[in-house]
Amino acid sequence: MTTKTRNIINWVLTGLVGFIFIGSAISKLTANAEALKMAEGFGLDANNYMLLGIVEITAIILFLIPRTAIIGTLLLAAYMGGAIATHLEHAQPLAAPIAIATFVWIVAFVRIPELSQRVLGKKQA
Predict the structure, then answer these.
(1) What are the CA-CA distances from residue 75 to residues 29, 59, 80 (Å)?
(2) Cα-atom radius of gyration of the chain, to the nearest Å?
(3) Predicted confidence band at 12 (pLDDT cuts at 50, 70, 90)?
(4) Which of 46, 52, 61, 110 has its CA 20 to 30 A from that of 10?
(5) Please, what sign has the CA dihedral across residues 53, 57, 62, 63?
(6) The whole model's pTM is what?
(7) Exposed, middle or buried by CB within 10 Å (0-12, 13-18, 19+), for 8?
(8) What pLDDT score was predicted for residue 91?
């Protein structure tokens, strides 16, 4: 695979992660009625839900910037860990938050070679 092809794949995958989290954050920040209904089901009021949107936007911005991508990855992983715990606590389906968390890590490993080197002990190609 050429470097150009790898870069295109990296940015497409990164864009998908961005799309997922930016869309989610916008629904929280705009106080979307459907999103607020879901928040109430988790025991959150509108202010706390908006705060989660700010956290989400901050994490995804850090993930999208190459220099801060590792910090963004860790913040997104922590955020999704909280989402998984919340879903467990409220007997909600776990497939979506687990799939999104897994996708974030896959994209991070593909996009950030240093991360896979450190975590998996791989040599740089």
Answers:
(1) 19, 6, 9
(2) 16
(3) very high
(4) 52
(5) positive
(6) 0.88
(7) exposed
(8) 92
